Each structure stands twice: as C-alpha cells, then as structure tokens.
Amino acid sequence: MDRTSTAAGFTIRRLHPGDVDALYDLASKNEIFYQYHPPFITRERLLEDMEALPPGRTAEDKFFLGFFEGCRLAAVMDLILGYPEEGAAWIGWFMVERELQGRGVGTEIIQSCEAYLAKRGYGSLRLAIDQGNPQSRAFWTKNGFVQNGKEIPNEVSAYIPMKKELQMEAEMPRETCTT
C-alpha cells in the first residue's frame, strides 16, 4: 500500500498535506455527513485527521488514501490496519465525491478494499457510523456491515460500531492429469 496503485478504476495513493485543498473540496460538499458529525470540516482538522492514530497503532499502520480519477480526488479513506485488534482493519473515515454518490463508486471501492485485505489475511473490517445518519447506515448495511456492539455515546449523540467478516476467495482446485 505504500506505492501508487490502481483498483476499481481509480489511481490510489496516500494523501499528504499538499492534498488538503482537494480533500477539503470533496469533504465540504458532503453536508449530510456534517449534520450528524459536527463540527463542519476545516483544513486544519483534515490535517490533524491525516495524522491521528488510535491507541496502540503507529504511522506504519495508517493509510489515509485518495482515490483519483485522473487528477480529480473522487474518494478518500482513512484505513488503519491491526485495529481494534490484530487481524482486523478499521475504516476511520470514508467519503465519496458528492457528484459520484449513488452510482456504485463507493461500493466498488469498498469491495476492492475488502478483497485486498482478505488476501492479506485480515478477517474483518470495522468502522463506526453516526447515530441517526440514514445515508451512512444505508450505505454500510447495503455493503454487508452489521452492528457490532452497543452504541458508544459521544458529545453529540453516539457512534454505532459496525463490522463485516472478510472471506478469502477460495482457490479453484487444480485439475491433475494422470497418464
């Protein structure tokens, strides 16, 4: 994941502070998210989020990824490996450019991420959504995530933990010939 790669038709690379304007442009157009997850985004907060780590994780475990369509930032994902436990991965934040929502773009990206993680031995993908956000709940439920645990109160309402078990695609048996 350290290099630029492609998946679901996008060029993927780690975002860096120089990407903050494109990141802000993408995030600031997603007003529904901030109705349930205040305060509204700022460039300063985005820069902090790029570096933020959960307990017990290091910068090597964090991938703040941009999904590009040409030069256009189409989606962003904050992915943390080995959290909240070894063998799991955590999506701290996932957002698709508003103009691309409802077209299957987010689902393609998530499915590519799931396949990538499963091939590398990760057994589950986890995240938390904001209580009451119908857009987030519908998206993650459609993509096979289920509530996993009790709601976690926060200063605004609560986070709802969600989880999806990842399955490695079974290898096709090889035919053997005997003569």
List keywords for this structure.
disordered C terminus, Aminopeptidase, 179 residues, single chain
* Helix content class: 25-40%
Largest sheet: 9 strands, mixed
Mean pLDDT, to the nearest integer, reads 89
Strand content: 25-35%
CATH class: Alpha Beta
Structural class: alpha+beta
How many helix segments?
A: 5
The CATH superfamily is identified as Gcn5-related N-acetyltransferase (GNAT)
Name the CATH architecture: 3-Layer(aba) Sandwich
* Count of beta strands: 9
The overall number of domains is 1
Structure description:
The chain has 179 residues and is α+β, with helices and mostly antiparallel strands. The chain has a single domain, classed as Gcn5-related N-acetyltransferase (GNAT) (Aminopeptidase), CATH 3.40.630. 27% of the residues lie in helices and 30% in strands. Mean pLDDT is 89; it is low at 170-179.
Task: Describe the structure in brief.
With about 180 residues, the protein is of the alpha+beta class. About 25% of the residues lie in helices and about 30% in strands.
Topology:
Blueprint: E1 5-7, E2 10-14, H1 20-28, H2 31-36, H3 43-51, E3 62-69, E4 72-81, E5 88-96, H4 105-119, E6 124-130, H5 134-142, E7 146-147, E8 152-153, E9 158-165
Parallel strand pairs: 5-6
Antiparallel strand pairs: 1-2, 2-3, 3-4, 4-5, 6-9, 7-9, 8-9
